[in-house]
Amino acid sequence: MGIDLSVNLGGLVMKNPVTVASGTFAAGQEYGDFIDLNELGALTTKGVSLNGWGGNDAPRIAETPSGILNSIGLQNPGVASLKQHELKALEAYTVPVIVNVSGHSFDEYIKVIESLESCNRVDAYEVNISCPNVDEGGMTFGTHAPSVEKIVGMCRRATKRPLIVKLTPNVTDITEIARAAEAGGADAISLINTVLGMAINAQTRKPELARVVGGLSGPAIKPIALRMVWQVHQAVSVPILGMGGISSGTDAIEFMLAGATAVAVGIANFIDPRSTMHVIEGIRSYCQLNGVDDVTTLIGGLQC
Amino acid sequence: MSKLVEGICPIISNEEVGPRLFLMRLDAPHCAQSIEPGQFIHVSVPGIEGHVLRRPFSVYDTDGKSIISILYQVVGFGTDRMTELVPGDRMSVIGAIGHGWIVPNDAHRVLLVGGGVGSAPLFLLARKLKEQHIDTDVVIGAQTLDALVTYEDFRNVIEHAPIACTDDGSFGVSGFCTIPVQRLLGTTSYDMVFCCGPEPLMHAVSDQCRDAQIPCQISMEKRMACGIGACLSCVVDTIHGKRRACVDGPVFKSEEVVW
User: Fold this and answer.
1) Contact B223 A55 (CB under 8 A)
2) Looking at the predicted complex, does its ipTM rise above 0.90?
3) Does residue A67 lie in a domain region?
4) For A4, left (φ over 0), alpha (ψ -120 to 50), or beta?
5) Does the global pTM surpass 0.90?
6) Residue A112 in domain
7) Which of B5, B50, B236 lies at the smallest CB-CB distance from A66?
8) Which residues of A touch B5 (CB under 8 A)?
9) Which of A119, A131, A155, A304 is an active site residue?
């Protein structure tokens, strides 16, 4: 029996439901020694801004129970460099590319998208209105529903390509934000970005991160992510890209049952650079064992 | 940097060689055959699944065929767990990673400075310098004599006896490595200084070399996540902006580092 693993994420056709979480995978080249990038359902690039950002001071990471706390701060060389180098290198591959877009202002997001519109190595945008590690833009836009609807609307008018909007979990009601993104014209919603947290060294009496606070990711946040995917799936009709602590096929299936159409593997890539392949294989073997011939039948299949 | 490979590597031995210091030998042909002095491996320690990151270790020695060794200090949960591993246990090892020490083609005499466990990534370099017949002085320091675990190995490889320093004066020079380094820089004409150790030591030696107008390379250790250049966690501030310790380093020219 052939198993159909393909999914449609708001117009982005993926041959399997697995992509990577932005920021954990650069633009893929670093993983080329370990996996065939073309085996991914899609490749999501590190967040890019208009003119490039230097990012935050080190230390930028701290290991915490079943997770890591990061405050990278969207260090990136700017959209022109992304086009000239990373997206150029991806011309050698057929994998669909989702470019994660960041900005300090509404205008900056639009300018980044406009700059990428002529690039044929972009298959979809993921608008990052949820990074907790920058002072302007990022999460500040993603926690206020009217701002979310406005910026998503502006991005919507700038492109006809699939528009994915990445949400922060650091809000009181995730469904309100998701509805605003949908109303603004999002084709899909991705969640969750990292959970704002901190870590302290009792011996030095100092924070573990130079920025003091940072974003928590990894298995520690998986229950939060599952809950939010489930809530958002009931609140909106656009498809969901689920993420938060996924490192196995079983994790991915849980997200799909909660309502995700596709999933992203994040820091599991740091532990095992072949994680994405294990997740794809795990989804396939779950389908085989459970008589599932079309993976999309699992979406939202949670039996409460 | 050559292609990165992950290997599942059996532990051959894992012995305590000093206070909180262990020498682990691994069967890791994928690293042993390609390792350059100053490169490191990124290790997944079994049995600490709640601690999700790999741990980076510089390679101390290799037989060039299948075996590598790492000299590690117990500093936290991961290294503490590593001390319990026994021959036959396996670890996932990615390597060999990074840009190591660069020996100038025309070098005649060089100085190696290693503080604490920081002398580990200098040992393979000492072997290479010996093969290239480059006159090498070594200064190594530790808190106490029993922590000066690399002394004999360096003594067996280089022509001149290593100059040892101990913080407590239990052996060699009493005090930090910077004391003999200052004297040597004033009396000897070096083509390059290679330094690895605690960041204050590397900073101090970099300043000494700058004042003596001798080029210096240092090996930076930063908190690391992916270890392959993707996540931008381990950045070092340089005059060229933020650079990744894992793949742009770990060895940097000291004059490029912004302390």
Assistant:
1) no
2) yes
3) no
4) beta
5) yes
6) yes
7) B50
8) 33
9) A131
